[in-house]
Specification:
about 375 residues, mainly alpha, Glycosyltransferase, 2 domains, two-stranded antiparallel sheet
């Protein structure tokens, strides 16, 4: 039993459902300035505890749009005032739903677990509507856009950044098998989920980038037609992405009977991650004069310093042709060192990731030992 499955079972036994899937949207709502939101957080907005399942589930249902999805960047654990609740009700029919920032699939999973725990039929109905929303968003080629419905611009790219495609596929895989918290799901939807995962895996295999004929990794987002890595915001050029690649590999290793193509894709990605990892350095926050930018405030700066004893880390973005770490600011200027971009982006984005470490040191070796000879 994996650590995450064991934790979920232990929490359920105590009448608690893990709410960490909401953390990304929660952070955006509380910490990042977005005036376009339907409603804003108030100072010191209180939160429900993880054990308050009825209250959290009521929030999840309140935020669910008429199309079955959810708008991004709100806190499902927030104790809302009457004005905030009314603003959400008034925007019920909006088509502002998005998978960005770990959204929609955490709500579907939470509702599935809540129904399995407490049996409230309203939670089951909302979960099924969310599941249908995800199934309806899949492209014919197996990919998923960042935004749905009517995706456009960067929202139309097949997106791995912020957990989009792999988060959706993982929930659909749980629904298809089914995992215990989806044991109540009807057979027809389980089959639709199984086929969606099958198409998704084939799309992943087609998107693995070849460099000089050698399979390597995946980008943060890929063009929905050509399947090539694509740029997004001005500080997100087309690249290869170690963090997203690690997440994709973990998902592929979860295949019950991995094909030769899946095994080959995993092995190639592992070799690439070993090649582009950084050693002998660490990232530090250092005090700096307070500064306020359009999206965030900061009283620190971020620097990369030598440290021979530091554990390995990986750049968020890697140049496709050269394997060098990539950095950029809102002007679109490309740099190859963190110090070469402005403080707004140094403190406004995470430029290094550590997730490949567990994959390389623990999960991949265990998976490799379990493969048939």
């Amino acid at each position: 039993m994996s650590t995450s499955v064991f934790l979920a079972a232990a929490l359920a036994g105590a009448g608690i459902i893990d709410t960490s899937g909401f953390n990304d949207s929660r952070h955006h709502w509380r910490s990042i300035n977005q005036p376009e939101r339907t409603m804003q957080a108030v100072p010191d907005q209180p939160s429900y505890a993880a054990g308050q399942v009825d209250e959290i589930a009521a929030n999840v249902l309140l935020f669910q749009r008429a199309n079955g999805g959810w708008p991004k960047d709100y806190d499902m654990l927030a104790i809302l005032n009457d004005d905030q609740k009314q603003r959400i009700r008034d925007s019920h029919d909006a088509n502002d739903t998005s998978f960005d920032n770990h959204n929609v699939f955490p709500q579907v999973e939470y509702l599935a677990r809540a129904f399995a725990l407490r049996g409230n039929p309203a939670w089951r109905e909302a979960c099924v509507r969310g599941l249908d929303f995800m199934l309806g968003a899949q492209y014919a080629n197996g990919g998923f856009p960042q935004r749905w419905p009517k995706p456009s611009g960067i929202g139309a790219h097949i997106t791995f950044n912020d957990g989009v495609m792999i988060g959706i596929l993982q929930v659909l895989r749980d629904a298809a098998r089914p995992a215990p918290h989806f044991s109540w799901l009807d057979r027809e939807r389980r089959e639709r989920a199984r086929l969606a995962v099958q198409r998704g895996v084939q799309c992943l295999l087609r998107m693995q980038v070849l460099v000089d004929g050698v399979p390597t990794a995946w980008g943060q987002q890929h063009d929905a037609r050509t399947l090539a890595p694509a740029p997004a915001r001005t500080f997100e050029p087309a690249c290869l992405a170690p963090g997203d690649t690690a997440e994709i590999v973990e998902f592929l290793m979860g295949e019950e009977r991995p094909s030769r193509e899946v095994v080959a894709a995993v092995e190639a990605a592992i070799a690439w991650l070993r090649k582009v990892g950084l050693s002998g350095v660490k990232v530090e926050r250092v005090p700096a004069p307070p500064a306020e930018y359009f999206r965030h405030k900061t009283d620190f700066d971020v620097v990369v310093v030598p440290d021979a004893k530091a554990p390995p880390l990986w750049p968020r973005m890697v140049e496709i042709a050269t394997g060098r770490a990539l950095f950029a600011d809102r002007s679109g200027k490309i740099a190859y060192a963190l110090a070469e971009i402005d403080r707004e982006r140094r403190t406004g984005s995470g430029w290094f990731v550590t997730s490949p470490r567990r994959l390389l040191e623990t999960d991949y070796p265990r998976w490799r030992r379990g493969l048939p000879e």
